[in-house]
Amino acid sequence: MAIFSGLPPSPPPPPPSGRYVGSNPLRREYGLRLLTCNLPEPLRAALVRALRRPPRFQGEKTPLAVQSGRRLRPDEGQLAKATLQTKCTLVLTELEVTWRVLEAPLGSISRMTRNTLLVSQGAYLRRLYLALVEQLGDVGLALTEFQRALDAIG
């Protein structure tokens, strides 16, 4: 011990990659839990599996564009009248927005804002899923539409 007492402390070794410079796995996992806590089990499992893939925007220098917490979305009545194509487009859009919020770099939005956005995204994804189930008449078909959208964005 006496040999090292006169030396200045050495800096910590650099991480093996820059993967967690802008985020960290625990933050990402907590975001996934907030997002999926109120989703039906088949949809929850599909989203968690897809969104645990490596980050899409790794290494980006500019923060991702994230929507406002007050943005307008179609209400229940509009969703009920919407065509299947419109609902599928909404699913694709909402999943893209979800991914951007989930991958938002540390410090780009506050923790409370991020958590609020993820909870509201989860609630809206649930509404879209239930609207698809109602229109298609089958849970499996609605899940297939979500899977198509997940494959398209990732």
SSE inventory with pairings:
Elements: H1 25-36, H2 41-51, H3 76-81, H4 84-102, H5 111-136, H6 139-153
Helix pairs in contact: 1-5, 2-6, 4-5, 4-6, 5-6
Structure in words:
With 154 residues, the protein is mostly helical. It contains 6 helices and no strands. It has helices at 25-36, 41-51, 76-81, 84-102, 111-136, 139-153. 20% of the residues are buried. The mean pLDDT is 83.
N-to-C CA distance: 52 Å
- What share of residues are in beta strands? under 5%
Return residue spans where pLDDT drops below 50 for at least 5 consecutive residues.
Answer: none
- Sequence of secondary-structure elements: HHHHHH
Whole-number mean pLDDT? 83
Main sheet attributes: strand count, strand direction, barrel closure? none
| SS element count, helices | 6
What overall geometry do the principal axes of the alpha carbons give? elongated
| Helicity range | 55-70%
